[in-house]
Amino acid sequence: MRLWLPLYGTLVLVFLCLPVLIVAPMSFSSAQSLEFPPPGFSLRWYAALFGNPVWIEAGRNSLILATVSSTIALFCGTTAAYVLVRGNFAGRAAVEANIIAPMIVPSIITAVALYIFFARAGILGSFGGLILGHTVLSVPYVVLVMQSAIRSFDPRIEQVAATLGASRWQVLTRITLPNIMPSALAAWIFAFVLSFDEVVITIFISGTHLTIPKRMFAELALQVNPTITAVATLLVGCNLIALGLLMLVARRGGVAGLVRP
Amino acid sequence: MTLTHHANGAGAIAPPAPRRRQGWQMLLLLAPVLVLILTVFDWPLLQTMYWSILDEDTGRLTLAHFREFWESQAYLRIIWRTLRIALTVTVVTILLGYPLAYWATRLSSGARFVVLGLVVMTFWVSILVRTYAWIVVLGSSGLINRSLMGMGLTEKPVQFLYNEVGIVIGMVNVLLPFLVLPLYAAMVRVDPRLMQVAQTMGARPMRVFWQVFFPLTVGALVTSAILVFILALGFYITPAILGGGKVPLVANMMDLLINRVANWNMAAVVSVVLLAMTLSLYALYQRLRDGRT
């Protein structure tokens, strides 16, 4: 028991981290094939990546999509979280369940539903439709993060401001918002990463628009191209930077829940 | 006393907004998310349900699509395969995840930080990256096969990819953190004095574990296992890449129905079936979770 538990635990941990441990060294390989360990060091796959206008375009699209959708999600999600925590009305639980639903319903179902809906509405393959799809998917996460932030913020401070004559709007903009700023930043990073990594819905509704994960998925289905290892390594790097930022923000502002469901 | 008095005095000068006005303000704040969810989520889902019972030629409602679904061997076979793989994945995830979480609780705080940090980190790495790497590891000239052949354990490369084995490995890898993290959270809540008491009463370590610790964490194990099972049911990317199109699961079948053969009715039927399975399991999950706390 004393001996096998650390051994077994370490092996499971290695299994868990293996993909990351494999992909990063491979991206610096000098070989044409997917050999591991790589026979030599080179930056050729990064050169191939940045020299390819298709990848550049996909990267630009992904950045725009993630920025816009996470910003809309932050706005909608924060106002909703505020009402859900502070408001007291009939059907509150039902409204909350509905807002959280896109997180629980498998994204393949959302993808099919959006496909049918957008096709009927004539906006299938539009960039605007894609933004809406990504926003719906990240709103639940924003709501969850912001709800816990607002809940942990003492409502009496708001009440004092209100009794001192501040309007509801003033209370919101001058008292509540500055206090929940760190969580808002965390929620935004969350939403950004979710959108940046999203594949399933994008494949269904993006039409001819490319994103990095969509392009990656298409390449994987066709052949094994080492350029993907460079993309993957960059993605891992970006995700870890986002995680680091989030932990930094969390330490400063006491954000609960770093886990991405 | 002075505080209430002061508050009352201030309230007298500027009375709080009347309830009805407050209600309108709340509705206004809720409006953006409601518009978004109602139009881009609820309505599309309702439309999908409608398509599952719509007869396109006559415009009438029909159950013919559901009948076709039940009578067709192909659809049911894929549903069964999905359930079987999801169950396998859940069992393997438990076998790997429970000891890992337990091990983490018994580490020093520094080592614990590293272990949990690694688990959280994998959570944050794109699922495409995590799936892709297995092609390199499991391929016929991949890391595992070359090691096996190097050690003389096998003559020909073992086929891990493009079959159920590869899919299970890839899915377990992606889903493991969903089990380990909530399980770990439940394990650290167990009072260590309970085990100490059992030990001072003369119970051997194995008995302490199975009779005291395990029963206290089995509830969390069941709920997180249900969550893993639910997530496994809807998997699309891993079976598409590691199955190479040879082992389609429900999600891949839906992709085929929409993007290849454009059979919206059948895609809608499969959506409704998968949705019903997911939501009923989720209801069970919530019930068990609420019952525990």
Multimerization status: heterodimer
Radius of gyration of chain B: 26 Å
Order of SSEs of chain A, N→C? HHHHHHHHHHH
Helical/strand content category of chain B: mainly alpha
What does this structure look like?
The complex is a heterodimer of chains A (261) and B (293). With 261 residues, chain A is mostly helical. Chain A has one domain (45-253): MetI-like fold (Orthogonal Bundle), CATH 1.10.3720. Chain A is built from eleven helices and no strands. Chain A has helices at residues 4-27, 44-50, 53-86, 92-104, 107-121, 127-151, 155-163, 168-197, 200-205, 212-222, 227-253. Mean pLDDT of chain A is 88; it is low at 256-261. Chain B is mainly alpha-helical and 293 residues long. Chain B has one domain (75-292): MetI-like (MetI-like fold, Orthogonal Bundle). Helices cover 80% and strands 0% of the residues of chain B. Chain B has 13 helices and no strands. Chain B has helices spanning 2-13, 19-52, 64-71, 73-105, 109-124, 127-138, 143-150, 164-189, 192-200, 205-233, 237-242, 250-260, 264-292. In chain B, helix 8 packs across helix 10. Classes of the chains: A mainly alpha (261), B mainly alpha (293). At the A-B interface, helix 1, helix 3, helix 4, helix 5 and helix 6 of A face helix 1, helix 2, helix 4, helix 5 and helix 6 of B.
List the helices and strands and how they pair.
The complex is a heterodimer of chains A (261) and B (293).
Chain A: H1 4-27, H2 44-50, H3 53-86, H4 92-104, H5 107-121, H6 127-151, H7 155-163, H8 168-197, H9 200-205, H10 212-222, H11 227-253
Helix pairs in contact in A: 1-11, 2-11, 3-6, 3-8, 3-10, 4-6, 6-8, 7-8, 8-11
Chain B: H1 2-13, H2 19-52, H3 64-71, H4 73-105, H5 109-124, H6 127-138, H7 143-150, H8 164-189, H9 192-200, H10 205-233, H11 237-242, H12 250-260, H13 264-292
